[in-house]
Design goal:
Layout (H helix, E strand, L loop, with lengths): L8 H22 L8 H14 L3 E2 L11 E5 L2 E3 L14 E10 L2 E10 L5 H18 L8 H14 L3 E2 L5 E3 L6 E5 L16 E4 L2 E3 L5 E3 L6 E3 L5 E3 L2 E4 L6 E2 L3
Antiparallel strand pairs: 1-4, 2-4, 3-12, 4-5, 6-10, 7-8, 7-9, 9-14, 10-13, 11-12, 14-15
Helix pairs in contact: 1-2, 3-4
Bound molecules: 2-amino-4-trifluoromethylsulfanyl-butyric acid and cobalt (II) ion.
């Protein structure tokens, strides 16, 4: 048997609240995205916001991660570490990835924003990444198989001329930030597990404008594109039901 946790009605209520709060945190943080702000300052605002809702930032101290928000600029794919010297400039794209813990339950979501006016390619990359999530969750319902979601994401991204990162994947979520199953954004062998009502998944396409290959930086966290191309990230915590999926963090 798999170790995938199926959430009870009570657990789902807590996860809904964790997701609702996280969506507000993201909406509030978006207002600070402008040229001149440092990623350090965005992280501070994120920490304060999460605390103001009586929640804990899931990422802070997770495996030693030193901040509340992962902030990744341009060719940084994910897990950029907030830094006073990392200043947003007009034309950048910036991904904010955040998680909150509410009454012991996690939510996890990421958004990519434009800093001022960005190139046509950057805008298209952000749009395709976000839409790939919605293409994927068309298959996120009971009776389908996990990799139906993966395949749909990959198909949409590649049809638009971009590539899907392989070395990082989405995941189950609940009492823990990372639970089974892994949720790849590309098709792998087999079908994956059958989707069952009460499963909660963090579905998170990471999409590169160039090739899908990545490098880890010396800080052991920041993941960048090998070819220096732009990358975007879009993620929500999703509840599987008999019917349409419920996006908890939107
Ligand atoms: N959102 C990321 C994920 O889904 C979590 C970041 S790892 C952390 O895996 F260490 F920053 F928490
Ligand atoms: Co995640």
């Amino acid at each position: 048997m798999s170790g995938i946790s199926i959430k009870s009605a009570e657990e789902i209520e807590k996860m809904k609240e964790a997701g609702r709060i996280l969506s507000i945190v993201h909406d509030e943080l978006e207002k600070f995205i402008q040229p001149g702000i440092s990623t350090w300052d965005i992280d501070q605002k994120g920490y304060d916001l999460i605390k103001s809702f009586g929640c804990e930032p899931s990422f802070l101290n997770y495996n030693g991660y030193p901040a509340s928000i992962c902030i990744s600029i341009d060719d940084e794919i994910v897990h950029g570490i907030p830094n006073k010297k990392h200043i947003l400039h007009e034309g950048n794209i910036v991904s904010l990835d955040a998680g909150v813990i509410y009454k012991g339950y996690h939510s996890d979501a990421a958004r990519t924003h434009a800093v001022g006016t960005v190139s046509e390619e950057a805008q298209r990359l952000m749009d395709v990444t976000k839409q790939s999530f919605f293409e994927g969750i068309k298959f996120a319902k009971a009776g389908n198989y996990l990799y139906d979601i993966s395949a749909a994401i990959q198909k949409y991204v590649e049809a638009n001329g971009f590539s899907v990162v392989r070395d990082l994947v989405g995941h189950g979520i609940g009492k823990n930030l990372h639970e089974e199953p892994e949720v790849p954004n590309y098709k792998i062998r087999g079908k994956g597990v059958k989707l069952v009502p009460g499963m909660t998944l963090a579905i998170e396409p990471m999409v590169n404008a160039g090739s899908y290959e990545v490098w880890w930086l010396e800080d052991d966290w920041t993941v960048v594109t090998q070819d220096g191309s732009l990358s975007a990230h879009y993620e929500n915590t999703v509840l599987i039901t008999e019917d349409e999926p419920v996006i908890l963090s939107l």
